Amino acid sequence: MKKIYIPFLVLFLLLVSACGQTSGTEKIEKPTIKIGYLPITHAGPLYLDAHLHHGEFENYSIEMVKFGSWPDLMDALNTGRIDGASVLIELAMKAREQGIDLKAIALGHKDGNVMITSKEIEKTEDLVGKTYAIPHKFSTHNLLLNEMMKKDGFTYEDVNVVEMPPAEMPAALAENRIAGYVVAEPFGAHSVVLGHGKVHYHSNEIWPDSYCCVLVLRNDFIQQHEEVTHSFVKQYVESGKRANERGKELFESFATFMQVDEEVLDLSLEWISFAELRIEEEEYNKLSQFMVEMGLSEQPPAYEDFVDHSFIEDVQNVRER
Ligand code: ZN
Fold first, then answer.
1. pTM (global) more than 0.85
2. How close is the Cα of 272 to the center of ligand 1, in Å?
């Protein structure tokens, strides 16, 4: 009996594979990479990618998906509604620690955060007992606040720390509801330009080359689209270099993805660097230690488990060849 059925099975398999070949010769649809972001200046290279090429590339398309808050963005990332994001590194590390298979591919930027205070605050001591806002406890901003307090001989507990949506911070400072804040740009520059606040410290005075936002992708996306990921990262690095030149197109791209006054944006961009976006192990480990010290993580993901630098490495190798 079996001998009779085998030829039918073989014929069936041949037909299936023939159909597969037919569709393979047709134009293969290119994948769309859905990238989540918050409208902040820290996602500059991505804005430039999506603006200059209208999100269309040879073997993939980019769709920028805007979110109003970090928890909403993380929820979409963790459940696979988006393939990747420009996100605070601490939030991505926390998700990885909780078992979400994310890979950090490249930095979003370096430096570019400012510690803002009201004009009455002259030194860190004046902040003792006052209210200070951060966007999220899992943020470099929170780590920077801790480092600033330590550097000047105080502790984190000496200020009353509150979490607040970034866009609310400039108004809260102007109305004296808070004495200071640290958050992603352009919200620091906003208070400076309007004259309600001043720069107490630049992040590089407290923690040079601090990491803040990273480009992450879901590992299942990478595994299904390895070639596309290579192309995507190559383009991303090029856009980072171009963003660093602060040309006209960078300002145009910002106008596409966020509403910001040109003077505010100008000042904001003076503080940030989009060059050298490789995630270095030493810096990563330093950040991990800060998180442990503040009780934000018991066991941060190991560099080799969380960071996939093979794509950015590949771009650098191509350049050196
Ligand atoms: Zn950032």
1. yes
2. 9
Domains 30-110+212-320 and 114-206 in one fold: yes
Q: Cα(109) to centroid of ligand 1, in Å?
A: 6
> In this structure, are residues 121 and 200 in contact, taking their beta carbons and an 8 Å threshold?
yes
* Distance between CA atoms of residues 277 and 57, nearest Å: 21
Which tokens belong to 82?
Answer: 């988006």
Residue 27's pLDDT is what?
Answer: 56
- Reported as a single tens digit per residue, the pLDDT across 48-84 is 999 999 999 999 999 999 998 889 999 999 999 999 9
Parse the chain into domains and list their residue ranges: 30-110+212-320, 114-206
Distance 43 CA to ligand 1 centre (A): 7
CATH superfamily of 114-206: Periplasmic binding protein-like II (3.40.190.10)
- 42 HSE (CA, 13 A, CB side): 30
**How far is the centre of ligand 1, averaged over its atoms, from the C-alpha of 86 (Å)?**
8
Compute, in angstroms, the gap from residue 108 CA to the centroid of ligand 1: 7
Question: CATH assignment of 30-110+212-320?
Answer: 3.40.190.10
Distance 258 CA to ligand 1 centre (A): 15
